[in-house]
Specification:
The complex is a heterodimer of chains A (about 160) and B (about 70). Chain A has a 5-stranded antiparallel beta sheet with strand order 2-1-5-4-3, sandwiched between helices. In chain A, strand 4 and strand 5 form a beta hairpin. The longest helix of chain A is centred in the first third of the chain and has 22 residues. Chain A is built from 6 helices and 5 strands. The radius of gyration of chain A is 22 Å and the shape is elongated. Helices cover about 45% and strands about 20% of the residues of chain A. Chain B has a two-stranded antiparallel ribbon. In chain B, strand 1 and strand 2 form a beta hairpin. Chain B is built from 2 helices and 2 strands; from the N terminus they run αββα. Chain B is elongated, with a radius of gyration of 20 Å. The chains are: A alpha+beta (about 160), B mainly alpha (about 70). The interface between A and B is large, with 40 and 33 residues. Strand 3 of chain A pairs antiparallel with strand 1 of chain B.
């Protein structure tokens, strides 16, 4: 299907979606790297391995906790924050800036994985001010907004 | 009822309390933190003495270093 997100493009998509995402890696169900963005190709394997290790450590930490198995993790360290989310099919991990908003980053991770799995594109909205600025102002358009439109249209 | 006006010492103390609170908040924000979320989005804090905490921090630090390099 045209426009459907592929595993190879998923990490890039996440980094495009979020200004705070610096690098990302996608793993398949077997833990093999399926796509990456933001790191040199020779380092992508290391990033994938670390993403695998991250969820191994999450599962280890979870043994002492109540509730279901964790689907998402957030680890804040000095130079940045690592977020990761997993579904039965995929694991997506991202290295973000330290001041990234957790709720937004976790939502972006889920949204991108949802787009990958279902093919439904992420709905993005434009701020009303930005949308208005994108429209070139013309006299005709201004006249159309007038409460008495005929006053704004003159025969030339 | 109107609040009683603070004198110079009271104002200075209020200012110092504000600065101290800001410093505490900044220190807290810099501290390492590990959270895991279940499928409902419920967050749990992994305690520093919890199983896997150190490994999670070490792994995340290596990931950040890898991206910085």
């Amino acid at each position: 299907m045209a426009g459907t997100l592929s595993p190879e493009r998923t990490a890039r998509r996440l980094c495009e979606l979020s200004a705070d995402a610096r690098a990302a890696v996608l793993l398949d169900a077997a833990g093999a790297p399926a796509g990456y963005h933001g790191v040199a190709p020779e380092r992508s394997g290391d990033l994938a391995q670390l993403a695998r290790q991250l969820f191994e450590a999450v599962d280890r930490a979870h043994r002492d906790m109540p509730g279901g198995p964790p689907e998402q993790a957030e680890v804040q360290v000095d130079g940045g924050t690592v977020y990761a989310t997993r579904t039965p099919k995929w694991t997506l991990a991202v290295v973000a800036r330290r001041n990234a908003l957790s709720s937004l980053m976790l939502m972006d991770l889920r949204a991108v994985l949802g787009e990958l799995e279902t093919g439904a594109p992420i709905r993005r909205s434009t701020a009303a001010a930005a949308a208005a600025a994108a429209v070139e102002p013309t006299e005709e358009a201004a006249a159309g907004e007038s409460p008495v439109p005929e006053l704004g249209i003159e025969d030339r | 009822m109107r609040e009683k006006r603070k004198g110079p010492i009271g104002r200075a103390a209020g200012l110092a309390e504000g600065v101290a609170a800001t410093v505490r908040r900044m220190q807290r924000e810099r501290e390492p933190r590990v959270l895991v979320y279940d499928e409902t989005g419920y967050a749990r804090l992994v305690q520093p003495d919890g199983r896997g905490y150190e490994r999670l921090l070490a792994t995340a630090e290596r990931m950040v270093e890898l991206v910085d390099a």
